[in-house]
Design goal:
With about 240 residues, the chain is of the alpha/beta class. It contains six helices and eight strands. The chain has helices at about 55-65, 90-95, 105-115, 130-140, 180-195, 225-240; strands at about 20-25, 30-35, 40-45, 70-75, 125-130, 145-150, 170-175, 200-205. Strands 1-2-4-3-5-6-7-8 form an eight-stranded mixed sheet, sandwiched between helices. The relative contact order is 0.15. It comes from Lanius ludovicianus. Pfam families: DLH (PF01738). GO terms for molecular function: hydrolase activity. This is Carboxymethylenebutenolidase homolog.
């Protein structure tokens, strides 16, 4: 088995006590955290391949809620097994076939309906990491109900249909990401300049690898910490600007 070229090390992780709780939404389960005051603004967090129970993702949900948003992370894998760090990398393409980040429209609609009808949300943003970053890119092309999006290191698949974003979208990348070459990032920038009619932003963080932005504070290396914190601030600022 070759070394994992794509997934960051999930071994050394501290325990995380979550601030929110789990809720059923139609056929989905979701983790939700609310701020301490009333708000009609919400954010959907799209998990990576490790799924909606992964502590790092729940940490991000709690972080967004702390900034004043009803924040929810639904199980986009619909109860099926997430990828595990013990799984074999050769099986990843097959696993991806049944976990397609472009097939999230129905789940997004279910969650949007819940946020509007049950939580009183009027403006809804979305942020997604890795697998979730690809899902966010897709949804920002398809779903006008999402006021703004942040896609963190979602692999960029090139086609002419990928650039006509409906609402403001921010793309975050790590400079040392094994899965996303700088060429792909330059191409994205080029095509967005040509086709995109709404505000967008692309930013590459020096020295950072895939998955860098969702580490919990106690799991950060000192040399990465400033970039991780900057990426998170940038993500929150983008949402605050538009949602």
């Amino acid at each position: 088995q070759m070394a994992d070229p794509f997934l960051y090390n999930t071994g050394e992780r501290s325990h995380y006590g979550c601030l929110g709780h789990e809720v059923p939404i139609e056929y989905l389960k979701a983790y939700i955290c609310r701020p301490s005051f009333f708000t009609d603004k919400a954010v959907i967090v799209v998990h990576d391949v490790f799924g909606w129970r992964f502590p790092d993702i729940r940490y991000i949900v709690d972080l967004m809620a702390g900034h004043g948003y009803i924040t929810i992370c639904p199980d986009f894998f619909k109860g099926t097994e997430p990828w595990k760090s013990t799984d074999h990398w050769v099986d990843f393409p097959d696993w991806m076939k049944s976990h397609d980040p472009m097939k999230v429209d129905k789940e997004a609609d279910v969650v949007l309906k819940y946020l509007k009808e049950q939580c009183g949300a009027k403006k809804i943003g979305i942020v997604g990491f890795s697998w979730g970053g690809m899902a966010v890119h897709h949804l920002m092309l398809k779903n006008p109900q999402l006021t703004a999006g942040v896609s963190l290191y979602g692999i960029v698949r090139d086609s002419e249909e990928r650039y006509r974003l409906l609402n403001p979208t921010f793309f975050i990348f790590g400079e040392k990401d094994h899965t996303i070459s700088l060429d792909q990032i330059f191409l994205l920038e080029d095509k967005l300049k040509q086709y995109c009619k709404v505000p967008y932003k692309i930013k590459v963080y020096p020295g950072q690898v895939h998955g860098f932005a969702q580490l919990k504070p106690e799991d950060m290396k000192p040399e990465d910490k400033p970039y991780i914190e900057e990426a998170r601030r940038d993500m929150i600022d983008w949402i605050k600007m538009f949602v």
